[in-house]
Design a protein that fits this description.
This protein has 10 helices and 15 strands. With 322 residues, the chain is α/β, with parallel strands linked by helices.
Length: 322
Amino acid sequence: MNRHYNVITVGESTIDAFMTLEHANTAMHMEGENGGVCFRHGAKIDVDRYDFEIGGNATNVAVGLTRLGVKSTLVSETGDDEFSIKIRNCLAKERIERTFIVETPGPSNFSVIINFNGDRTIFVQDVERKHEFHLYDVTADMIYLTSLGREWKGAYNKILDFVEKTGTSLVFNPGSRQLREDKDMMHKVLEKSKMVFINKEEAELILTDKQTMENGKEYIHELMQRVQKLGPGTVVLTNGKRGSYALDDKGEFHFHDTFDGKVVERTGAGDAYTSGFLAASLYGMSLPTAMEWGSHNAASVVGKVGAHPGLLSKHEMEERVG
């Protein structure tokens, strides 16, 4: 019997260890000219708080969608260490089936995130995986494809085959590795995508390999139009504190500002926006409303440490939207 989901997300699962450092001191300071965080070699640095969460783009979006009442599942890999148990237990707590979680010998993905002065620095352990998952006896309204590790091309081709055979709508969020390593594959996936989620820097990398300081609406609009010509019907672009933009398949261009609120830590803000936007879209809401859902979810997530603690439930979202 086929299982059916509203959304299948495909990507990494990680353990994220957050170290929050509230104050500079004699052993640690910011270097103003280049934005560097400097530590004295051999020093012992006081940590104000320590948090231990699960993460990964696909995992974050699956959790965000599920909290918003969307039936979702995750296709991912873990190692066979104690961290894999933590990942599975957290997914179970979020009521996400683990049917498509593959356990392979070796360590699980692990990141250390230093949260200091309102921003974060991420140290990532890049565990090589073969991504030998399968999608037998399953259907979905959407499949969300995002960043994967070194052996990612075969996995991406599997997803393209799945989309071709089933007619599932492909939603794409390219990872930095994919953007660096194979533009032809990126264009192949974009051509088959119904919707793409990118930030401004990713849009520039897709098109030119050059990043600029330009942030005007006319420039953003032009970037999105050029990305849309590569295939996706709807292009959604987030630009940090400057808000978000959407260009639909009719050529209508929309902007939504960010919501004010306390910023504690920014990990997962883009994934929270994506899950809010997709949930509203699946509920049949308008594109501007989908942007509002995304913006509320992102604003809530940055108010807490980690990608999941601030994710809104459907009831909480409806209260905020009014």
